[in-house]
Fold:
Amino acid sequence: MSPVVEKLNPRKPSALSIKRDAQRGNNRGWTVAINEITLDEVRNDATSFGLATKVLYQMNAGKEASIYLAYWRDFPIILKAYRFWQSAQARKSKGFFAPGRMQAIAAKEYDLLLACFKAGMNVPTPIGRVGNYVSMRLIGDGIEAAPQLRNVELEEPDIILDEILDDYLIMYRDVNYVHGDLSAYNILWWEGRAWIIDMPQASQVGPWSDMSSVVNLLRRDIVNLLLYFKKYGIQRDPDEIVKVFLSEYVPNNQRNFDESTILGVYE
Ligand SMILES: Nc1ncnc2c1ncn2[C@@H]1O[C@H](COP(=O)(O)OP(=O)(O)OP(=O)(O)O)[C@@H](O)[C@H]1O
Ligand SMILES: [Mg+2]
Structure:
């Protein structure tokens, strides 16, 4: 690297940071270099963490997590590993991730999945969380994983849309979260039922929330969901659905604030 380029390099360590890193045993603060993780490493982690007895293979690689088919004794399960390492998508943008951040995302997904499960939603049963790994029930059986909703032809789409909206209403009203990435990609279809998955980006709805951004996220989720149902000739007004959600839950102080000031946001 030329001296000029090196001078402009934002990652160029200062004399002080070189000294500090040496004191830390060259462990550079809160970030770690990204390396490809091997299946053997995942196997090793999952079995030593007690999350699985066997890890078969990688099923899927998303933006921040990889999904593995695993077994806990005789039961097929899913292991979702939030990565410290690169995917083809991540390679372009970032070279470093904070491991604490990935663990926090895994913890959030586990906690939220558990809350949704307890509230009565149709979601994969959460099983465990250690470090950056979350394990949950496999939707499907040991031979076949459930398809995403976008890849199936429904016989009774109207009823299924209502069921999904009912489930989402439980998440919004009782768990007080908006999903934030709901679509026919993040809903699985198995044994005549829809299963909502993939919730690490969800936003909490509480007294401190910015309700206009909550409403935007909610509306976007509903629009994305309705997009899939258009092919069955189902046309519903997303704003009417948002209104039903908001009539079921808006934090009290937000409602009072809205009534006295910005009229019309929740109407
Ligand atoms: N519990 C499960 N049972 C069966 N299949 C699953 C389960 N969880 C995830 N999958 C499969 O793995 C895919 C990716 O899972 P998920 O959406 O949770 O991960 P992600 O990394 O956030 O993905 P993306 O970034 O692509 O949205 C799902 O679309 C589904 O096909
Ligand atoms: Mg997903």
